[in-house]
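Recap from last week: sequence in, structure out.
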Amino acid sequence: MDMKEGEDDVVCLDGSFFIDNNYKLTTFTFGSQVLQLLCLQSASTDFDLTGQLVWPGAMLLNGYLIKNAEMLQGSSVFELGSGVGITGILCSRFCREVVMTDHNEEVLKILKKNIEHQTSSENHSYCSGLVAEKLEWGNSDQINHILERYPGGFDLILGADISFQQASIPLLFGTVKQLLGVRGKGLCKFILAYVSRAKIMDSMVVAEAIRHGLSIHEVTGTRSVVGNLEGVIYDIILH
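Predicted structure tokens:
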């Protein structure tokens, strides 16, 4: 039977159809640090489940962090869009506190499994403050909940390959501004590993940071090719 104009299209698939739980324990090496974590080897068919695998920007950010590990030593770190947790787990080798976040429940499940794997490892060298929290950018209730739990704020905010959807960019920088504001100007910074996939996104990321009253600067010497795409590290602070 043909659909009449104005009728709603009904999709007879629930969310579980897209979920791929075929995680593999994978080894990653950054400098002297060897990490093992569960992740997918290829992307899910659901755009919202991209956090189930390791993205090129995470490799870029981890490479930068391991070369500048002194900035992590004894610090508190908050990560946006943590996915499987490869960046936060690396940070936990140096930091006193690492809070990893994601908005997707399925991604949070694998993130928490990877935290459990670190804590159950016989030769673990992680900080005791390695936790996962749910955070949807722009969700004031969730942001306020996190700020209530961590009223002192954080030394560093991190994000790796999280700027690829136009609609999310204003929400991202609105959230970043709130987190940076807890400590105030000059006392916290946002380190963003950005991978260029479209010129419109390149300019939008910079423009939205500025529009939200933030100062954004490319870190000298960090522009490189990752996964056949150009990536760069940005330092972002309150203006």
